[in-house]
Amino acid sequence: MMPTEATYFGVPGTLLFALVLIGSIAAFAYTVSRRWQLLTIGGPPEVRWDRPLERLRGLLELGIFQKKMWWDGYAGLYHMLIFSGFVVLSVRTLSLVLEGFFPAAGIPFLPAGAWHAYLLLKDVVLVTTLAGVVLALGRRYLFRKERLDPSFDAGLILCLIGFLMVTDLLAGAAKFVLTPAHASGWEPATKALSAFLAGAPASTLEAVFFASWWLHLLAIFVFLNYLPFAKHFHVITALPNIFLRKLDAPGKLSLVDIEKAAEAEKFGVAKVEDFTWKQRLDMFTCTECGRCREVCPTHLTGKPLTPKGFMKDVRTALYTVAGDLVDAAEGRADAGAGKRLEERKALIGGWVDEETIWACTTCRYCESACPVSITYTDKIIDMRRHLVLEKSEFPKEAQTAFNGMERQGNPWNLPAADRDAWAAELDFEIPVLGAMEEADRDSVEVLFWVGCAGSYEDRGKKVSRALAKLLHEGGVKFAILGSEETCNGDSARRLGNEYLFQTLAQQNVETLNGYGVKRIVTNCPHCFNTIRNEYPDFGGKFEVLHGTEVVARLVAEGRLKLTEPLAKSISFHDACYLGRHNEIYEAPREVLAAIPGLTLTELPRSGRNGLCCGAGGGRMWLDEKIGTRINQARYAEIEETGTDLVGVSCPFCMVMLGNAQTEMAGKTQPFDVLELAAAALPTHPGAAAP
Ligand code: SF4
Ligand code: SF4
């Protein structure tokens, strides 16, 4: 039987092929429908289909053109080769399936020119995909990166992909020799391979053709049905996951309906079904590439949390009870399923250690590294919410900070009445909004939100005075809230105490709206992020600027002159809540560049790749008992650059790096960018000069 006859296998063979095809598609559809149901089993609602054009643009950039992989050299190359193989060869699979019924079918309705172009592309892609597979196997098993784990699953899938390419080429080459009249000059790789088969008996060629063809399609069916059970499910879910990615500011956390949650006596995430559907889609999508792990400061300093490990654990927790959860949601669960769900291993304390949950600094380096737009901190905070609000279980040091925020409006637990004491040392007075005549308030251009660190912490107070001087010199009409300002609630929220956060947020929004505040400047990136991105959920819609943005603007407009030279070298440490959370990288650098004599050297990890100081996510208030301290690890990187100073733009970073300098007897001194700018003012020369 020749492969050009009316059917490849006669009626019984064609029927058998039809059965195999229908069976495998049906099995795949069933599994995917169960996975789909698993997405819909509960959890709070989440809307991820707003702003479709923005989503589409991201899908093209991050999904189709894989922008995040461009800078990944070797891995980026083989991933692109394999990905392009999938795209082109999915059309090829369709053509091969059609051949099973109509051997001369090709792709219906395709004009000859397009058909030839397709044949050429297909042939090239078969070879490049094979090359991609070889490169990927090399990366996994010969010169493996730390971020990749040796995985049977990954090896199996890569071999399967390679097998698909080889069988396709072999079937094509055998057919080439068997039916030279139908051979196309547009398949150079197939033609080259056919030279090795030339001269073989027709029976051998037929055996090669049919065996390769069958094995190729059977491998595709196996591959298809294996995907939903393994990490390679991302082949199907990655593009939807990217399209449905978070578009809000990265640092914005979800709002909990406290009343509803209290009624249901259910806060945060205790079980896999408490996650939102999108959080479960993230679990389906993790490729286990380890890019998140390789940048996570907790992993780099030897702590148990690795974002990749976390994703794998929650996914395993989900898949272990997937069938029972879907049956239960459909009311089909028998007593056995109910018992299994009841007795399953706990998510918190079972699959995921509590230590892991408390280790995260919410720096989001992992999220910016993830090629498929997975988020982690929201999941971790949701689990903290359960521990704090439902179980009252949290590191005991957090209690002191909670008490301070609750009773005095600051985590240092210092008297609320002393909030504006820092301003007493200035040689000018800052108006306090509440003490101003109502008519005078209209002249206030911007409210200086000082923050708890800027009000109570010794170094933070110096920076507050520096910003006040800069605003004053720049002719900006500003005021403060004085003792009416209270903690913004960032640490409470990130430590899982959503109730306390919402109380503080509502109080602050009420005060700010009461005075008709429209524009706010702050030097604390945590205040900045919370007021800018999270207070709108409470009716507080303000234009929020970071201190360095205002000062950079004043310098650019010529309203501020920084004239006193500072002949020092400096590096700059990006604060996570200013940089990755809010994309502000340039303003602090512009201020540094405006100081005469100062030379900036970038740290190896800077900008989008800046390493956390260890204070975010409420970690500022917790002990760090495992592994190297994150502030010391970061400070060691800073010291290696050999600069005299390191610039910071966050009071928490200042405390953490200052502590590290003392602990390590380091030479590089941390200075806030605004302290240095104030010291360069002609009217305050050397005010805080190092
Ligand atoms: S979460 Fe993202 S970065 Fe981390 S292993 Fe999974 S796919 Fe890779
Ligand atoms: S947010 Fe930062 S600390 Fe937390 S898991 Fe991601 S990289 Fe690690």
Task: List the topology elements.
Elements: H1 10-39, H2 52-64, H3 73-101, H4 112-142, H5 152-178, H6 188-197, H7 202-226, H8 234-243, H9 258-264, H10 277-285, H11 291-295, H12 297-300, H13 307-320, H14 322-329, H15 335-343, H16 354-359, H17 365-369, H18 377-390, H19 396-407, H20 438-441, E1 446-449, H21 451-456, H22 458-473, E2 478-479, H23 490-494, H24 498-514, E3 519-522, H25 525-534, E4 543-546, H26 547-556, E5 569-572, H27 586-593, E6 599-600, H28 630-640, E7 645-648, H29 651-664, E8 669-672, H30 673-679
Parallel strand pairs: 1-2, 1-3, 3-4, 5-6, 5-7, 7-8
One iron/sulfur cluster binds next to helix 11 and helix 13.
Structure description:
By secondary structure, this protein is mainly α. It folds into 4 domains: 234 residues, Fumarate Reductase Cytochrome B subunit (Up-down Bundle), CATH 1.20.950; 129 residues, Fumarate Reductase Iron-sulfur Protein, Chain B, domain 2 (Orthogonal Bundle), CATH 1.10.1060; 144 residues, no CATH class; 111 residues, Rossmann fold, CATH 3.40.50. The chain is 54% helix and 4% strand. It has 30 helices and 8 strands. Strands 2-1-3-4 form a 4-stranded parallel beta sheet, sandwiched between helices. Strands 6-5-7-8 form a 4-stranded parallel beta sheet, with helices on both faces. β5, α27 and β6 form a beta-alpha-beta unit. α10 packs across α13. The radius of gyration is 31 Å and the shape is elongated. The protein binds iron/sulfur cluster (2 copies). One iron/sulfur cluster (SF4) binds next to α11 and α13.
